[in-house]
Amino acid sequence: MAKELKDLTKRSENYSQWYDDLVIKADLAERSAVRGCMVIKPYGYAIWEKMQHELDRMFKETGHQNAYFPLLIPKSFLSKEAEHVEGFAKECAVVTHHRLMNSPDGNGVVVDPESKLEEELIIRPTSETIIWNTYRGWINSYRDLPILINQWANVMRWEMRTRMFLRTAEFLWQEGHTAHATREEALEEVLRMLNIYNDFAHNYMALPVIKGVKSPNERFAGALDTYTIEAMMQDGKALQAGTSHFLGQNFAKAFDVTFINKENKPELVWATSWGVSTRLMGALIMSHSDDNGLVLPPHLAPIQCVIVPIYKNSEQLAQITEHVEPIVKELRALGVSVKYDNAENRRPGFKFADYELKGVPVRLAIGARDIENGTVELMRRDTLEKQVEPLEGIAQYVKGLLEEIQNNIYQKALRRRNEMIREVNSYDEFKVEIEKGGFLLCHWDGTPETEEKIKAETKATIRCIPLDGDKTPGLCMVTGKPSKQRVIFARSY
Amino acid sequence: MAKELKDLTKRSENYSQWYDDLVIKADLAERSAVRGCMVIKPYGYAIWEKMQHELDRMFKETGHQNAYFPLLIPKSFLSKEAEHVEGFAKECAVVTHHRLMNSPDGNGVVVDPESKLEEELIIRPTSETIIWNTYRGWINSYRDLPILINQWANVMRWEMRTRMFLRTAEFLWQEGHTAHATREEALEEVLRMLNIYNDFAHNYMALPVIKGVKSPNERFAGALDTYTIEAMMQDGKALQAGTSHFLGQNFAKAFDVTFINKENKPELVWATSWGVSTRLMGALIMSHSDDNGLVLPPHLAPIQCVIVPIYKNSEQLAQITEHVEPIVKELRALGVSVKYDNAENRRPGFKFADYELKGVPVRLAIGARDIENGTVELMRRDTLEKQVEPLEGIAQYVKGLLEEIQNNIYQKALRRRNEMIREVNSYDEFKVEIEKGGFLLCHWDGTPETEEKIKAETKATIRCIPLDGDKTPGLCMVTGKPSKQRVIFARSY
Asked: What's phi and psi for B11, nearest 5 deg?
């Protein structure tokens, strides 16, 4: 067994260490020399590119266009929306100078004090302010609306405790920013994008999520409502996988963006924003992977099928290659991304372990005996089961199997997640159950005070007020006051 | 005629103003609230996305993978390669703090002095330093080489004079960074990427470029050699469209990156880097466009064909739409991106002017009379010629015409460029000719001193020492000293 595989911590021993090990050993990312920032390695980036590709297509199919706004935001812009600056001021990277000079002592370079900026610039933690300042120039009449724009970008939030993909100072994301003539239209957009995130999570990430709305405490800074999709990791902790914000007219007010409506009267513009980030990589890793490494859903796997030849000499290799080439061609024609790994400097056992670690959904191994028998050994990464299949028709078989694996990974995650959801009816019970992890469905009186008390005492927060499911009213588990419906509590990433 | 079109300055009146007008009026980009930074609007970004798509494919077909490295670079990293820091220190955006706080006077927010960083961080002007610091951990033996990585990213250079797309403080680009075991392999990579840029310019941008090597004065800071593709704009000024650098072992030395070679001895790694940026947008605009607006080569046009219905009432519109729908379908099936603009709030004349301004290569106009006659009016943007074509088979005709237009735009740019190249044999003649613009082929003695004198006296620089063409030696036009071959001088963007 390969060295890397042996070194992977088991989930049961230390889940957190298992995650950190896996990110490194599967070549997804590594820590950089800059505090809190990571390097996304080619294999990790290839998965992110697949996510981007599908999301970008879904955005465009619903009428959105991409654009690009500046990285830097004047400090004064942040202050214009009171809650917004409150939410982001404590984690801003601030640019104060624009030049270096040779150090007077001859050692390297120092900041040139003469190059101090008149107004400091902030590296965008999110782009509402610079975008709404721009939209002011784009919007005059109701005919200019809606504006449906998305941006793929890097952003920076100076977090004190960071973890690769889950919480990094710099991260990659997309941020949609739309402008509408009416409240209804904006709300429709908020839910449209929430549903796109939901579909993406289910169909590509094989990730069951719960759609809901955030409690006021957990809202985006500056939003009237934040909608979310919430996922459950294997260790019983929740992960917020995507958010869609109803911003009302807050940013239009802060940046003076009005339009002339059909009745020829000026009105403030309605706004939404929505985003997902490289955090999704963390969700993907933690939802499906096991003690042998990554398990990737085929719809996001950079390599869906790897073929490894087993040979004793170059003659055998040539013979195997001759049989493999048409299979590779056929798989490609079927839209399957396939790699034939005939590298001679690594032994089959090493390759097997490495592709297991990297989560390649299907592995085919072909030796001289297989060629004689017209068979191939197939291993599914999701179940680790080996089976022998006829060589004839193997491409079609793999194509179908990938869909089966995609579905199986989803069903497995769904079963696990569902087992982790339970109703809790008293605060005493809650304090016991929260230690076991999972989503706890509880009655809550709707006040920030009760939510804060629960958080302070148990580290659990309201993940969301679910949109679907049981809406029976009840009594708050803490205060006994009326509750409109059960909400979801969990500890979270 | 539409208002926007009327306001476009003529090239002959003021070429520079024409460019600035066009960028704004064709909805490509606009200045932002942040000094020197632009907003790339959806139509401009869609062209950039098409460029990205083709380049990314070409990079991947030649074995490169994408990855992502941090935005911020520790100040000390920049100093490690002496020439590199010399080249970039004067235009660095410097992050010095990581937190804002409420202003003690109650007005907005100020930088929290307690949040000063121990070491300042620089927003990457280019990523050689952070990447080679990372490569040190990835490279042990010759088996780890080559590393062929590309990054799509934003970078920042605090330029004092900026122009949209051509020179902005923040710009978008791709930067390739490769590591090799031998000098020969690295040089091969440098030329491979130069040729990819050359092919992209020719086949997609319809832009004739000259491949060459830079004189020492014009090299990338830290490179042993910089290869370039040089383009000629309509006003006689040159534009550097892409560069590919042979970095030798400079960055390996600065960041201590060695590998164990096949003879089991440690050796410094060989490096290349190469990049093109949103500057290409400027080149595209200035090469082909005219006094009516943008002219886009079909291979990069977000909309290749627009169809405008001409109708008097909704009955006629319905009838036209019935005939247009199958044509739209057929065009899409042929891979043509088509827009049917049946918006009722804009008149045909306005639409015509707008699509001309936006450079849509083919416009079809269909009225009730056309339906009767089985014809359609077609306008080519490159020649502004109108022609009447049979409706039957129109999709196939447009498909073929787009290729003809692509080629015609290229041939036109090539003719214009070739007319602007001339041999100059004396410095007196040079001083006259340089005022007329264009590429001047001259003998030069190969010294930085002579090059600097010419630059100081005429504002012209050596654009490149061409790789192809006449290599006859001669005598320097300034000093009379021996010259190995003619080099290309021009004033440039």
From this structure: -60, -40
Indicate which of A27, A31, A72 best probes the interface with B, i.e. most B CBs within 10 Å of its own CB: A72
Q: How many CB pairs under 8 A join A and B?
A: 196
Are A493 and A233 within 8 A, CB to CB? yes
The residue assigned the tokens 């080489």 is B145
Q: B130 with B61: CB under 8 angstroms?
A: no
Give me the pLDDT at residue B6, please. Answer: 59
CB A376 within 8 A of CB A366: yes
Q: CB atoms < 10 A from the CB of A34, how many?
A: 21
Q: Average pLDDT of B263-270?
A: 98
- Picking from A88, A91, A63, the residue whose alpha carbon sits closest to that of residue A78 is A88
CA angle, residues A397, A403, A406, in degrees to nearest 5: 135
Average pLDDT over residues B298-307: 98
How far apart, in Å, are the Cα atoms of A5 and each of A57, A306, B345?
A: 36, 18, 64
Closest Cα in chain B, distance from residue A492 (Å): 25
Q: Where do we find the tokens 């990049």?
A: B275
Across the interface, whether the CB atoms of B70 and A149 are under 8 A apart is answered: no
- Determine the residue of chain A that is closest to B43 in CA distance: A67
| pLDDT at residue B48, rounded to an integer | 98
DSSP assigned state of B141: B
SS3 at position B414: helix
B24 in A contact zone (CB under 8 Å): no
**Claim: this prediction has a pTM higher than 0.90:** yes
Query: 3-class SS at B226?
Result: strand
User: In Å, how far is A489's CA from the nearest CA of chain B?
Assistant: 31
DSSP code, position A269: P
Name the DSSP class of A292: T
CB interface of A with B, residues 242-281, below 8 Å? none
Please report the residues numbered 75 through 94 in chain B whose beta carbons come closer than 8 angstroms to any beta carbon of chain A: 75-79, 85, 89-94
Q: Which domains does chain B have, with CATH numbers?
A: 50-286 (3.30.930.10), 298-416 (3.40.50.800), 421-490 (3.30.110.30)
Q: What is the SS3 assignment for B473?
A: coil
Contacts of B158 in chain A (CB under 8 A): 98-99
Nearest Cα residue to B242 out of B289, B199, B275:
B275
Cα–chain center distance at A76 = 31
The ipTM assigned to this model is 0.96
Q: Could you give the CA distance from residue A323 to residue A330 in angstroms, rounded to a whole number?
A: 12
Asked if residue A216 has a cis previous peptide bond (ω within 30° of 0), the answer is no
Residue A5 pLDDT > 90: no
Q: Which of A33, A97, A121 sits opposite B34 (nearest CB)?
A: A121
Q: Chain A contact for B143, CB < 8 A?
A: yes
Q: Which two tokens stand for residue B139?
A: 């490279």
pLDDT tens string A444-457 = 999 999 999 999 99
Q: Which two tokens stand for residue A105?
A: 């002592």
- Mean pLDDT for the stretch of residues B232-261: 97
DSSP one-letter code for B361: S
Q: What pLDDT score was predicted for residue A1?
A: 40
Give kind and range of the element (H or E) at residue A273. strand A270-277
Question: Are A32 and B70 inside 8 Å of each other by CB?
Answer: yes
In the DSSP assignment, the letter for residue B9 is P
Task: Note the pLDDT tens digit of each residue in A10-22.
Answer: 999 999 999 999 9
Cα B154 from Cα B171, distance rounded (Å): 6
Q: Of A398, A360, A376, nearest to A320 (Cα)?
A: A376
Q: Which of the 8 DSSP states describes residue B459?
A: S
User: What's the N-to-C CA distance of chain A in angstroms?
Assistant: 33
Q: Which of residues 406-465 of A touch B (CB under 8 A)?
A: none
- Residues in chain A within 8 Å Cβ distance of B153: 154
Residues 47-66 of chain A whose Cβ lies under 8 A from any Cβ of chain B: 49, 65-66
